[in-house]
UniProtKB/TrEMBL annotation:
Pfam families: HTH_1 (PF00126), LysR_substrate (PF03466). One of its GO terms (molecular function) is DNA binding. PROSITE patterns: HTH_LYSR. Belongs to the LysR transcriptional regulatory family. It comes from the Bacteria. It comes from Pseudomonas koreensis. InterPro entries: LysR-type_TF, LysR_HTH_N, LysR_subst-bd, WH-like_DNA-bd_sf, WH_DNA-bd_sf. The keyword Transcription applies. Signal peptide: none annotated. The keyword Iron does not apply. This is LysR family transcriptional regulator.
Length: 305
């Protein structure tokens, strides 16, 4: 078996695409002159190709006949497999088709936190369904430390994450810049106006800790730089949980402005200190960078924010 495999490999190494194209046309035309015309080659060049093919296949392939050339049994056996192989190769190297969302049946996977779901995916969802009704969309957990590996392995097609923590190996497109605001329930007795720094620190705060269990974040760092500290009494891993807590208690939180914008259960005031915001972006691997369907998906998400 290994000897036969080695012979096949050696034969493939002796072939090139031009020889196979010549053989395909010769098997269709049964005439060197007509084959040369179709291939835009000289007749001697086609004859040279035929001689090489006969040597490689150890068969005359085409024999003189009364009306042109007639194929040998070996040539007849080659005809269909060769045509199928060349058609497959043509499809493989053909330019990518123009993406038609109305006819698409893709299943996309987007890696995101609940923040990315709410601020990027949700605003785009209705438009995506209208334009591409045959597609499906799955939201998968975002694991920043595994982004490069997961992107290259196809665990997700697109990731939504902050630019600051993003790996340089992935393509990136900024979506928007976010800022923090102070939020609490509607009618909160201590949020009728923007609090002073002392009042701010005296409030009981919820902190969103993506890794879980943390009680120190960007707001605490900004306070520490001016010699202050706040009272963080609850740490949760998700923004949506934090907003539910705010709506039903007197706890407050520093939250991204887009997340609380238009929420009827919450009221928002400016914090008494500047907390650095961040840039939200989408990320993807080189393997899908030029794919027309992927480009279309990126354009829809960008247009929705």
């Amino acid at each position: 078996m290994s000897d036969m495999s080695g012979i096949a490999v050696n034969n493939l190494r002796r072939l090139d695409i031009n020889l196979l194209l010549t053989l395909d046309v010769l098997l269709a035309e049964h005439n060197v002159t007509r084959a040369a015309q179709r291939l835009h080659l000289s007749q001697p060049s086609v004859s040279v190709h035929l001689a090489r093919l006969r040597e490689i296949f150890n068969d005359p392939l085409l024999l003189p006949g009364p009306r042109g050339m007639r194929p040998t049994a070996r040539a007849d056996a080659l005809r269909e497999p060769l045509r199928e192989a060349l058609e497959a190769l043509e499809r493989a190297v053909a330019p990518a088709d123009v993406f038609d969302p109305a006819q698409a049946t893709h299943s996309w996977k987007i890696a995101a936190t609940d923040y990315g779901e709410s601020t990027v995916v949700l605003p785009a969802l209705s438009h995506l369904r209208d334009l591409a009704p045959g597609t499906r969309l799955a939201i998968v957990d975002l694991t920043p430390a595994q982004m490069v590996k997961q992107a290259e392995q196809g665990v997700f097609d697109l990731a939504l994450h902050i630019s600051e923590d993003a790996p340089p190996e992935l393509h990136r497109r900024p979506l928007f810049t976010e800022r923090y605001v102070l939020a609490g329930r509607v009618g909160h007795p201590r949020l009728t106006q923007a609090p002073s720094r002392e009042q701010f620190c005296a409030l009981e705060h919820v902190l969103v800790s993506r890794e879980g269990g943390g009680f120190f974040g960007a707001t605490d760092k900004a306070l520490a730089e001016v010699g202050l500290a706040r009272k963080v009494v609850l740490s949760v891993p998700h923004f949506l949980m934090a907003m539910s807590v705010l709506a039903s208690t007197d706890l407050v939180a520093m939250l991204p402005s887009r997340l609380v914008r238009g929420n009827p259960a919450l009221q928002v005031v400016d914090a008494p200190l500047q907390v650095p915001g961040y840039e939200m972006a989408m990320f993807w691997a080189e393997r899908v960078h030029r794919d027309p369907a992927h480009k279309w998906l990126r354009e829809q998400l960008l247009a929705s924010v």
